[in-house]
Design a protein that fits this description.
binds ligand EPS; Chorismate synthase, AroC fold; about 30% helix; 17 strands; single chain; about 375 residues
């Protein structure tokens, strides 16, 4: 399964095309919309989210509620486009208010204008904006629809916002996704959630922004997905790349990640036990469900760090690209914190990687063949 997206933040719409989707996967636009709404929520989101009501239009690839094996084209209209018709006009002359010349430190603005030989940062920021992640979430919902047929569930929760962190990270198997979805910081602990909201309030009052850390996990994954024989097969590498493709993600860990580097091997690797009836059992999951570039049958546990959003209401110094004079970096409106939203985007990315890995292992043309192959595979695993 592959996807591509198109669309500018203030253009007419965002588009996702998901290719190589097996036939026969039930796809429900309402389920895609639920994920789009989950991405829009979150304490600390900015004014744009009050304007948008992201809803998908399924243009192709689905008939009578199921995929038909052709590319699935998805469109999400930008309600805000109406306010930007002149700025984002496809033809005609540029209007004055369209131009942005004060690049924001931390955003794609400066390297983007240097690369593309333009002085107008808007050419860059319109596409580099994290608005594009709405299209990824729609694409990921198609992958999730396949995974749910294969018995896999993807979930996420937030463990840190700024300096406020959960003291102990819970096992993803104990997470109640409904209550996480009900939390505007996607945090499983109410006391910590309150402190996170207070930190976001304080950052807003200071003209600041805040980053954080989230966990994205997959439950019910069979062992042996991915591969050890070639660099491109390694699932941890593919998950890492997928996570780092999300705007503002600066670090990724699988399982114990960086913490494992400080401990001796006997405290890092997960013993292998055999229990009659249960089969091979791993009493711990320091590996985060991945060994040797393959799933090992335990939950896949990924942790990602998001930097604070670069658009600051109390901006950092920048340079006006038209005059080369010092100037404050551009600001219009922004989120104070988008960590909960990024966690939902990461679910989509993880789902797309895993759906593809399942297709590699069990065939990717139609769901019924995949299910047959999966059953045979499960039946021959050591029990
Ligand atoms: C976003 C929409 C954007 C930003 C945000 C994400 O809308 P606007 O630019 O109109 O306010 O709110 O983008 C960023 C944080 C960023 O740095 O680009 C969205 O739909 O998630």
């Amino acid at each position: 399964m592959r996807y591509t997206t198109a669309g500018e933040s203030h253009g007419r719409a965002l588009v996702a095309i998901v290719s190589d989707v097996p036939a026969g996967v039930p796809v429900d636009a309402a389920a895609i919309d639920r994920d789009l709404a989950r991405r829009q929520r979150g304490y600390g989101r900015g004014g744009r989210m009050a304007i948008e009501r992201d809803q998908v239009q399924v243009l192709s690839g689905v008939r009578f509620g199921a995929t038909i094996g052709s590319p699935v084209a998805l469109v999400i209209a930008n309600r805000d486009w109406d306010q930007w018709l002149d700025v984002m006009a496809v033809s005609g002359e540029p209007v004055d208010r369209a131009r942005v010349t004060a690049p924001r430190p931390g955003h794609a603005d400066l390297p983007g204008v240097l690369r593309n030989a333009t002085h107008d940062v808007r050419d860059i920021l319109e596409r580099a904006s994290a608005r594009e992640t709405a299209a990824r979430v729609a694409a990921g919902a198609v992958a999730k629809a396949l995974l749910s047929q294969l018995g896999v569930r993807v979930l996420s929760f937030v463990t840190r916002i700024g300096e406020v962190a959960l003291p102990n990270e819970p096992d993803p198997r104990t997470i109640d996704s409904d209550s996480i979805d009900a939390s505007d910081v996607r945090c499983p602990d109410e006391r910590v959630s309150q402190a996170m909201r207070a930190a976001i309030d304080a950052a807003r009052a200071d003209g600041e922004s805040l980053g954080g850390v989230f966990v994205v996990a997959a439950l019910g994954v069979v062992p042996g997905l991915g591969g050890y024989a070639e660099a491109g097969q390694r699932l941890d590498a593919r998950i890492g790349a997928a996570m780092l493709s999300i705007p503002a993600i600066k670090g990724v860990e699988i399982g114990d990640g960086f913490a494992a580097a400080a401990r001796p091997g006997s405290q890092v690797h997960d013993p292998i036990l055999y229990r009659k009836g249960e089969g091979i059992v791993r009493p711990t999951n320091h590996a985060g469900g991945i060994e040797g570039g393959m799933t090992n049958g335990e939950p896949v546990v990924v942790r990602a760090a998001m930097k604070p959003i670069p658009t600051l209401m109390r901006p950092l110094p920048s340079v006006d690209l038209a005059t080369l004079e010092p100037v404050d970096a551009a600001k219009e409106r922004s989120d104070v914190c988008a960590v909960p939203a990024a966690a939902v985007v990461a679910e989509a990315e993880l789902a797309l990687v895993l759906a593809t890995a399942y297709q590699e292992a069990f065939g990717g043309r139609c769901l019924s063949d995949m299910l047959d192959a999966l059953e045979r595979y499960k039946a021959r695993l050591v029990r």
